[in-house]
Amino acid sequence: MSLKNVRLEVMQFLEKDVDSLIQKYLIPAETIWQPSDFLPNSESDSFFEEVKEIRELSKELPYDFWVVLVGDMITEEALPTYESWLMDVEGVNQVERNGWAKWVRHWTAEENRHGDVLNKYLYLSGRVNMREIERTTQHLISDGFDIGTDRDPYKNFVYTSFQELATYVSHNRVAKLAKDQSNRHLSKMCKIISGDEMRHHHAYSEFVERIFAVDPSQMMIAFQYMMKQKITMPAHFLRESGDKMSTAFEEFSNTAQRIGVYTALDYVDILEKLIKRWEIEKITGLNEEAEKARDYLLKLPSRMLRLAGRVKIPENSYQFKWVEPAKL
């Protein structure tokens, strides 16, 4: 049987548990928070006062902070690309609407709220150039991207396990920075977004655990493959208006590292957490190729730590079109 058919068989075997996993990790629309919970109520007489308060507090937050918040928001707003990608994974049948397709739709519905609330907050803040942000978002969606997973569910679930934890780290750190600047409302908003990301991380991590239980060798090889080529962050494909090729991601990444929102050390820490979560050292029944893959994975964090120590971050901020100089 081909690897593709084995993966399809495993996905079909695990599909019976998807409904219980949806109940375990996702929250119904009737009870989960909504963007309007964190935004001024346009029906209220106090609407303009609330907007004024947001704008006043926004003046206290530094330029680099806004760059990171904008980059996080654009990444969240590119959700249509992520949904279409996952809907094309082997075993996810969007035509027959199987359990996996149901998971992707429900997960997408939760994720959609993140870009929605951040977009509206940025618009009300008065600190950013929304037209330039909207252009970058449109470019990111229309350009598409290749995260190196093909249609392979094993590789895709490694990717989402890693990426959801990375977005948790980013949103959680932004929440702390906002709190340090006495912007408790923005802090709470980013904190609750990070909570969603952590739940989603645990869900995708459990998917991988379940695959390790039934197909350990191929799951190990898929994990090694993804880490060998490195996880490509969605923001890697950012570009500003007028640029066919852009340094936007590199400069966004530099900014995030400079203010400690997401660093090279965080990347290594996430890898170590996944290795521990999936108990890579204890997995049995591996073939020779998978044993070599495990050995590679166990040695990788220390190797990457040495590289992370050599990273030099520019001290000066790059001037993004997203945040105008007049607003500094």
From TrEMBL:
Cofactors: Fe cation; Fe(2+)
Keyword presence, Hydrolase: no
Keywords, ordered alphabetically: Fatty acid biosynthesis, Fatty acid metabolism, Iron, Lipid biosynthesis, Lipid metabolism, Metal-binding, Oxidoreductase
Cofactor info, note text: Binds 2 iron ions per subunit.
Binding site for Fe cation 2: E111, E164, E197, H200
Protein origin, superkingdom: Bacteria
Lipid metabolism found in the keyword field: yes
GO BP annotations listed: fatty acid biosynthetic process
Residues involved in Fe cation 1 binding: E76, E111, H114, E197
One GO MF term attached to the UniProt entry: metal ion binding
Family affiliation: Belongs to the fatty acid desaturase type 2 family.
Binding partners and assembly: Homodimer.
UniProt protein name: Acyl-ACP desaturase
Source organism (scientific name): Bizionia saleffrena
Lineage: Bacteria, Pseudomonadati, Bacteroidota, Flavobacteriia, Flavobacteriales
